Structure formats: structure tokens, C-alpha cells
Amino acid sequence: MKLYCLSGHPTLPCNVLKFKSTTIMLDCGLDTTSVLNFLPLPLVHSPRLSKLPGWISKDGTINLEKELKDCAGRVFVDSQPEFCLPERELLDLSTIDVILISNYHCMMALPYITEHTGFTGTVYATEPTLQIGRLLMEEVVNFMERVPKAQSATCWKNKEIQRMLPGPLKDAVDVWTWKRCYSMQEVNSALSKVQLVGYSQKVELFGAVQVSPLSSGYSLGSSNWIIQSHHEKVSYVSGSSLLTTHPQPMDQSSLKNSDVLILTGLTQMPTANPDGMLGEFCSNLAMTIRAGGNVLVPCYSSGVIYDLLECLYQFIESASLGTTPFYFISPVANSSLEFSQIFAEWLCHNKQTKVYLPEPPFPHAELIQTNKLKHYPSIHGDFSSEFRQPCVVFTGHPSLRFGDVVHFMELWGKSSLNTIIFTEPDFSYLDALAPYQPLAMKCVYCPIDTRLNFHQVSKLLKEVQPLHVVCPEQYTQPPLTQSHRSDLMLELQPPPMPYRRCSVLNLPFRRRYERVYILPELANSLVPSEIKPGVSVATVSAVVHSKDNKHTLQHGITEVKVEETADGHILHLQAEDTLIQLEEDGTHIVCDNNEPLRTTLRDLVLRFLQKL
Amino acid sequence: IGKITGCVFPLQGAGQDVGRSCILVSIGGKNIMLDCGMHMGYNDDRRFPDFSYITQNGRLTDFLDCVIISHFHLDHCGALPYMSEMVGYDGPIYMTHPTKAICPILLEDFRKITVDKKGETNFFTSQMIKDCMKKVVPLNLHQTVQVDDELEIKAYYAGHVLGAAMVHIKVGSESVVYTVSVNKYAKSHISAWIDKCRPDILISESTYATTIRDSKRCRERDFLKKVHETIERGGKVLIPVFALGRAQELCILLETFWERMNLKAPIYFSTGLTEKANHYYKLFITWTNQKIRKTFVQRNMFEFKHIKAFDRSYADNPGPMVVFATPGMLHAGQSLQIFKKWAGNEKNMVIMPGYCVQGTIGHKILNGQRKLEMEGRATLDVKLQVEYMSFSAHADAKGIMQLIRMAEPRNMLLVHGEAVKMEFLKGKIEQEFSIDCYMPANGETATVTTNPSVPVDISLNLLKREMALGGPLPDPKKPRTMHGTLIMKENSLKLVSSEQALKELGLNEHQLRFTCRVQLQDPHSDPDTLHRIYTHLKSVLKGYTIQHLPDGTVMVESIVIKVSSSAEDTNAKVLLLSWSYQGGEYFFTALCIVKRLMYQ
Fold first, then answer.
1. Which residues form the Beta-Casp domain (chain B) (predicted)?
2. Distance CA A29, CA A101 (A)
3. Which pLDDT tens digit goes with each residue over A518-566?
4. pLDDT of residue B294 exceeding 80
């Protein structure tokens, strides 16, 4: 059993597990942090961004002024932003049988895998994961296609040249694997390969392996996966949460008794408490509005935004923000808000109870009804005429490189009255802000990451007791910036097996048993004898049939093939490789040196002849 | 091992009868109650299933492992509070989320009509409904729910009404599928229909067993045409419905028709449930068909423009109108009141969109009765037109046949239908699929013998050894014989090699040896004879281990050969060949060779 690690990003994993005779891809995460090296894509013409000086190396030998631009003291690539794909050379991806998706953030690389590698398998995901994943992909595609950029910069990727570039471009890894965004057509084709599954549904793969998603408590429809046969069990833990937010709580007990537990998707902000961050978010928001400024919240269009809106719903009145307009701008804003209301089965108990009443589970329905929250597909159209300030705007993309957020950065960045509040933990906010410097607007960093922290995960592991743990190498040492914090790493006995991009791990497995089925006729003929109290034995001599990875045991000669010939019949005893040719005037028995069988057959034939 | 386990079905009110469903299944030692319905046609004890079949006295908890409710219609869940709170059952009750949401509302509604309006006593209370619902565990589609270590259930989309489910019940390798009503349009739902799960028994309702209904489109067109014609001639249309289910689909149909034809006649929907009902449909939209789900973000189909809430006084308004009123069988309530008002005018029309139970006015008028006896000896002349539209999504023959093709059951069991119709379907099933088809009457038990194979854990060493003998790849056409020992200990079955079994059980192997004496004449000395045999065997039997041991024996694999001569005649030699049971195969070869040598 082997694990191929195709992504080095601990929260956007992409691993391939070879288990028994199956090849299973676990998640399909797309590392989007690469876009931070690119210039923002403005929605309306930006004089500032269009007049940036091109980059020429100090000694003047390398001239990349068309591809690279100097902006706010850093060098950025002037091209459509590109993403860092999972490794595609480590193994033949066309051999993948199935892809298991754990949550909608971990499927963004799906079109690259399913459309361009000869993949012919099936993708398994829950319904909310599929629907919201589709929205997130649609959003990114829309962001990119709205502001097409003809140029695709490639010269800078040349190894010799990249070496000469200033950081962080110089240190960017695997730049040749970086790819532009997919098209909507590719998204649709990729998603048409998804087969929906429900929590605790048992899905059989080729009769050899059973996979089953478990609630992971992180987002709508998010799951961990159990991959097991009758005697081996692998648990795959991806983004999971023990906090009570909107999704169904995490199913922990089903992870028990695993031989191997693959642990990914822990919190990226181990020192930030989500509740505290939420409080800080609200107070900063209120403070800015009261001072007459605007608040910009760069965010994904699904996920934490539901919790932010719920929090604001309770907060608005008490903070007398009742008249402040809240805007949610995204090509999928409406869909995201509507979809969140129809997944009752996937919600926490409190929200389910509301649906039984029947009331919408999320209070943002009421915010929309009372006109406190308005949503628009983009800043163009209705929004431009209805927009009032001061206001709060939720919009994407959190990298600040594309989407409507770019416009608001240009619009509000110069006033110190305004505030930008970062809530998504995926991007370093300083890097995200780099091309906009110098900024007058206030910056507040309240990353809300509800995924498991090290304390929670060690408690969980103590509880479920896996024999071995596999995790990204980042989890086996404290973060670089806090090297003294030994509590910010996994300490386990036996120590976890670390992986990094391109690792191939041999998983320690000792398979000792396999399941066979004794057919009823054979079972009835067995003669058990009790040799000790409570222990009986029976000897079994039987034929093993193996089909679709299922083994059955049955009686001796079972397969006889009869063939009609011109003069009679030919019986083929397949198991014994014996031919009996029956004709009117003769019988011919052809068999290997098997004396007892020959004798038995001879006696049988003689007996029948005598009868005649 | 190899014990034959039966599946038993004491049926309660679900046999050859339409009205209330309640089935008891015994499978692999587990007892499961499927549905717990109430009969709409009765007002006395007969309306509830007879639980004394299960136990004469005491609570049902000890006798049932779980209860599963397929959908929210009262003929499938109406007796639930009675069963759990009045007879007594504390175990789990499974139903889907929409059913769990809607079921208590219908029960409460039903209770109000029975107790508050009709003044009946000995009926369950509001509190009992609440307590009963606390025992409900919601089911998600396709989720495998482990009721206990052995019993697991899995729900499939059935598409009958909002939240309706088929259930697959499995104990070990035995299984049963129960479905109320499959609707062949279920396939339009995104969650694919049932797996090829090959249950031992498929239990299906057969309400519409004989009808092979024409296409849904045709029926819809027909319905719209009839409504339209009546409206055009200034008549009123009454459509008795149950608040949830078909009603919403018909509303969508009329709403779009009105929009398209630009019609002005008012459409009303009675009872306070309306808005709530539509809200349920909106929130549980994932349970509706794909067309509705696809467009729901742009336009929610359940937000109607033309359909307004009904007020009692509207029934007397002049001019054409369409009214959806509850209940669906015209047995009480608003639909009956409106019917009485409109029955005398032949311009009006009543459309019955579903099945009507015997004893209800709906049933009577569908059977052509034109004079109805009402309370207080009054008679009512029925002059309005009566139309029947089989919109109710109960299983029809085609649907059941399709389901059998999908699930490939080993036996079929029909319930919830009229005997004659079931007989027809039974014949059809037995003929087409050559499987046994049962149709037990109420209170009758159908026993189906299953023949499960026995799962055993085989040691990988043993399996691999067998695999290796059969070549590098398992070849299904060339099965291999395997010898092993089955150890039965504390409910576990392990199949291991004989050696391992002996080791594990701390037993000594029993040695079985054979020795054979061969007389021959040879002038050489004993050691020379032995040596001649040794060199000969060595030259003939290539590839076998042959040893000449210092103690004066030759070993061919496990066969020991010794030579001795008699004291009297040194030429007369006795050859002793000794082998163990396992070495038997080689023995004959060795013996032949030795004999041949001696004849030379």
C-alpha cells in the first residue's frame, strides 16, 4: 500500500492512495497562493496599474519589461493569474479509479485532473460540496473571463532567468506547473463526473474496497473519508471542525480503529481563536461605520460568510447599524445565499429544527427580506446606481488579485476612514496588499479558521487511536516564525510519518486475513467437531472462485461445460482440465495424470453402460 | 453455520386492502415495523393496526428493533403516536427529514378534526405527538444507518411525495427492500434510484396494480383541458387534495397554464397549511424533481402569483373559479363543505386527483353514485361532473416491474392493494421474472426462506498459497481447490491452513504412515542393493529430492526405503517402503520405478 503526495499545501491536499487493487485520489486541492505573484486585474481601467514601469535587471542584461512590472517596490507578473497545480509527473493520473472530495475548497483543481490526464473514473462528493464547489469555480472563471488578458507571461519562468529575479518571484517553486484558469466548459465536464454520496453511505469500489464519507463539521457537506476492506481501515481526515457553526457536527467515533490515519487540513491560524476573531471583526466594522468610513471584507462567496452574516444579524441592532447597507457582490452571490437555505440535512441540529417549523435555517434570508443585505452579480449594473456610503461590502477574491474587490481597493484605499478586514486565512494579508501600497485605509487581520487546532487534534487522536498517522511535514515541526512553540506541532507515539510534495510513502500494513464466502451447500456439508469448549473446527476442501475481488468457496466439480458435436457431446470439467467425449459408439476420457478421477469416471461410465 | 433463516411478515392492515399500512418484518433475528398507518374509512378501533399480533400485553419496545416510516401520508404514519405512546414503544423511529418535518403537522391536524370537532375520546393528544416525534431519528438519502451491530438500513429516493423513501434493510447477508410507491419519474431526481442490491424480498405497494398509466404529459394536458373547459362555461372546479404532495405539483401546473393563457379566473387554495406547505417544498427543494431544482435560484416554483388563499365565503361568489381544498377523499372538512354547495350545478366539476378509500364520499361518487345520503337523513343530488385523474403517485404496474428489474429481488411481496388487482400483478411478475410472489392477507404471515452464504475470514497466507498455485493472476475460469481448516470460536469464523490451525489450537498432528513390503531376489549385499536403487531413482526421478542417509536408508521426498535380507536366503531381499499420508502421491511413482528396476 502506497501514498503518493501530489501537493505540498497542508490545507489544499492532493494525495493518491493505492489500496488493494484500487487507485484512489484523496482531494484535488488547487494552491492559489501563486496568484499573489501577479498584478491585480482591475475591472475598470486603472491609470496607476497601466503605467507601471517594466522590470529590467540591474545590470541591464535581462529585459522582461513586458512580462514583469515594478509595483510598490515589488516585482509582479503582468499576466492572467496562474495557479499551482498538483504534481502530475509522480504517477500516471489516467490510472486513477476514483477521486474522493472532502469539501468544496479541496476540489478546485478537479478540471485540470479530470479533463487533461486521460482520467476515466468517478468523482465522489456530497451534494452541497458539488453545488457550492460549482459556484466557487464558476466565480473564479467569471472573474478571469470578465477581464481577459491576452498576454501569457512565460519568459520569466526560465530557470536561468528566474534565478536572477528579486524575491519572492525568485523563490517561487514549480513555476512550470502553474496554469491559467480553466473554462466553464471544462468545469461542467469535470463536474458531470461527480457521483453524489450521503454521509455514512457505503460505496463499493470493484468489490475490493469500501469508501464512506463522514461528516467533518467544517463546511456544508464537508466530509472525512473511511477507506476500508474487511480487515484494513484507512481514515482520511481533511478540513474538520469541532466548533458549533452551521454544518452538521463532526463524526469522530467512526474514525476509530484505523490502521492508518491521513491527517490534513488543520487550522492555518493555530494561534487565532475564531470566536475572538469574530468579536474583533464586529467591533472594527462598527467603529469604521460610526466614523463614516466604509468596510471592505474580501471573502469567498460561501462558507465563513454565512457565519459572518449570522453574527452581524445579531449584532446590527445592538450596534445601531440598522440603516447601514450591507452589500454582497459576486456573480454567484444570489445562488450561494439561496443554496445555503436548502441543505437542511447537512446542517447542525439547531438549524434543522428551524427548517421543521418551517423557517429558513440562516437568518440572512431575513436580512435580505428587510433590505439590510443586498446582493449583486457585479459592481456594474444595478449596484452602481443603488450603492450608498458608508457601507459594508463582502466580495471576492480574498487574494485581492481579481474579482470586484480590486475595484474597491482602488476606490477606498486612499482614505484612512475606510477599513479592510481580512477574514479568510488562505493568503498572507501583507502579500495580498503588496501591489496596493502605500495604503491609507486601515487594515485589520481577523482570520477565521474553524479547522482543528493542534490541541483538538491530539485529543481526537488519543480518542480514536490510529496505529499510524501520516501528515504533511509542516505539522511535525513548529511554524518557522514561532519555533519555540512546541505546542504548535504534532507529537505522537509512534511519530507521524511526514510527507511533502512528491513524497511516496509505503504505508505500514500487515494484512493477515481476507473475506471469503462459503456457499450454503458447502456450509451445510461441513462437519464441525468441538475440540475445546467453545472452539470447533472443520476441515474444508473446496474450490475457490474469485470474481470481482470477491472470493467464494464451493464444492469440487462445479463447472462443467457441455459442447454439442456432430456425433455426441463433449463435457469439459474445467477445474480438472478434463475432457469427456461422448459418442454413440465410444467414450473418450482425456485427462492429466489424475488416477482417482480417471478411476471414478471409468466406473461411472461402466455403470451407465451396464444399465443400458 | 449454514443455518437457514426465515423472514416472516405478520401483516397488519396492509395486506390485501388499501387503507392503512403496517408491516412487521423478521429478518435474521431482527424485528422491524414498516410504516404505522391509519385507516381513513373507519372511526373506531379498526382505524389503527392491531398491535396484539405482536404482543397481547405490555410494551412493544422489547419486540421491535426499529420502526421505519416511508412517507408522511396518514395511511402510513397516522397510528404512530398511538403505537409509541399509547401501546408503548421507546425504540428508534426512522424517517427522512421532510417526513419528520411534515408528519407531526398532519398528525396534529388529524387529531384536531377527530377530537376537537368530532369530540372523540381515547385518542392521542398533542403532547403524545410531540413525545412520539422525539423518538424519531432523521434519515438522509443513501446514508447507511447502523441500527445496531447487525441491522443496517439505507434510504433511497422514492419520489412519491416530498420526502418519500424506499428502504433497504440488511442483516448479515439477508436483506429486504420496502417501497410504498415508486414512481417511475423518480429517475428524474438527481439521486439515482435503487442499486442492484438483490434483496431476498422486495415488498411493494400495489394500489394501482392493473393500471399501466399513460404518460404523465397526457394526463396533465387532459387535466388542464378539463379545468379550462369548465372555467370557459362559467363553472366552478373543485379539486380535493391533501395539503401536501400532489397539490403542489398541480398548483405549479395551473400557475404556468394561467400565465401562458392569460386567464383571469381566480384559483384558491384552502386551509392555513397552504403557505406552510409551500414553504416546506421550498426548503426541501433538493427532494423535488430536477426541473424544479434547476431553476430554483432564478425563480422559486412555489411562490405562486395566481393562487390565493381561500376564504370560506368565496364558495358562494358568482362566476368561475378553481379551488384546491382539503382533505383529498371528500370525507370531512372544507372540501366536503364546498362539494355540498356545488354538487347541484351541472356546470361545475370535481376532479379527484387521487385514490379514494372505500366508505368515503370520494369513493362513492367515483363509482357513479349520484344520490348521497348525508347526516340527518338528507340526500344530496350529485349533478356536477365527476372526473378521476390518477395523479397520485402510487406504484403502478410498470413502476413495480421497473423496480424489480433494477433491484433483482429473489422474492416479491405485494401489499396495500385490492386482492384482484394484486393477483393480476402477481401473475405478471411470476411470468416475467420467474420469482416467487407473495400477497399475504391482513394478519397473515408470509415466510420466505433465505439461503445466505457464510462470511469467513481466510488467512491471507492460505489464500495467497492457493492463488500462487493457480498462476500469477486469479483466473475465474480456472478455479483452484483449497484445503484448510475452519476454526469456530466466539462467533468468529476463521479459515486457516491446517498447520496454522494446529499451532493456534495447540494440537499435535496425527501421523498416518504406511509401510509396504516388496520381496525380490538380488544377489548383492544389502548396502549395494540400496545403492543401486538410489542411483537408479536418482537418474529417473529428476527434480525430486533423493537422499542416501548414513543410517542405511534412502529418502525420496518423504518416502523412506530400507533393504533387509532374510537370514536363510541372502538373495531374498525385502524392500520396506514407508510413507506418510501426505506423501501418498509420490509413492506409486517410486514403487513403479523400483519394481521396474528389479525386473531388469
1. 247-365
2. 9
3. 888 888 888 888 878 888 888 887 888 877 778 888 776 555 666 777 7
4. no
- Cβ–Cβ below 8 Å for A574 and B477: yes
Residues B293, B285: contact at Cβ < 8 Å? yes
**Residues of B with CB below 8 A from A552's CB?**
453
The reply to whether residue A517 touches residue B487, judged by beta carbons under 8 angstroms, is: no
Phi, psi for residue B442 in degrees, rounded to 5: -55, 135
How close B225 gets to chain A, by Cα (Å)?
34
Taking 80 as the threshold, does the pLDDT of residue B342 lie above it? Answer: yes
SS (H, E, C) B85-102: HHHHCCCCEEEEHHHHHH
DSSP SS3 for B168: strand
Query: In chain B, what percentage of residues exceed pLDDT 90?
Result: 15
Chain A positions touching B154 (Cβ under 8 A) are 201
**Nearest CA-CA distance, residue A522 and chain B, Å:** 8
**For residues A282 and A319, what is the distance between their CA atoms, to the nearest angstrom?**
9
Which residues have C-beta within 8 Å of that of residue B87, sequence separation ≥ 6? B51, B59, B60
Query: What is the Cα–Cα distance from B386 to B230, expressed in whole angstroms?
Result: 12
Q: Mapping DSSP to helix (H, G, I), strand (E, B) and coil, where does residue B320 land?
A: coil
Nearest chain A residue (CA) to B484: A540
Min mean pLDDT across A156-160, A480-484, A498-502, B271-275 is at B271-275
User: Per-residue pLDDT averaged across A398-420, rounded?
Assistant: 95
Return the beta strands (E) in B522-580 as ranges: 546-549, 553-556, 559-565, 572-580
Higher per-residue pLDDT: A574 or A569: A569
CB A299 within 8 A of CB A305: yes
SS3 B133: helix
* Radius of gyration over every alpha carbon of chain A, rounded to an integer in angstroms: 31
Chain B partners of A514 at a C-beta cutoff of 8 Å? 457-460, 463
Question: Quick one: which of B204, B243, B269 has its CA closest to B107?
Answer: B243
B372 pLDDT above the threshold of 80: yes
Beta strand ranges found along B468-552 (DSSP E): 480-489, 492-496, 513-521, 546-549
Cis amide prior to A397 (ω within 30 degrees): yes
Supply the pLDDT for residue B160.
66
Q: E strand or H helix at B437, and its extent?
A: strand B436-438
Task: Please tell me which of the candidates A343, A551, A574 has its beta carbon nearest to residue B463.
Answer: A551
DSSP B229: H
Q: Which residue has the higher pLDDT, A521 or A575?
A: A521
Which residue has cell 418535518?
B101
For residues A454 and A487, is the Cβ–Cβ distance under 8 A?
Answer: yes
- What is the grid cell recorded at A25? 485520489
More confident residue, A284 or B478: A284
Q: Would the pLDDT of B347 be above 80?
A: yes
Work out the average pLDDT over A569-582: 72
Residues of B with catalytic function: 205
Whether the predicted pLDDT of A187 surpasses 50:
yes
Q: What is the CA radius of gyration of chain B?
A: 38
Mean pLDDT in residue range A23-41: 95
Report the share of chain A in percent with pLDDT over 70.
Answer: 97
Sort residue A285 into left (φ over 0), alpha (ψ -120 to 50) or beta.
Answer: alpha
Would you call A528 and B486 a contact, using CB atoms and an 8 Å cutoff?
yes
Order of strands, sheet of A295-298, starting from the edge strand that comes earlier in the sequence: A373-376, A326-329, A392-395, A295-298, A419-422, A442-445
Residue A319 banded pLDDT, cuts 50, 70, 90: confident
Measured distance CA(A463)–CA(A452) in Å, rounded: 15
The H or E element that residue B399 is part of is helix B397-407
Summary mean pLDDT of chain B: 79
Joined grid coordinates for residue A433: 496588499
Residue pair A571/A580 in contact (Cβ under 8 Å)? The answer is yes
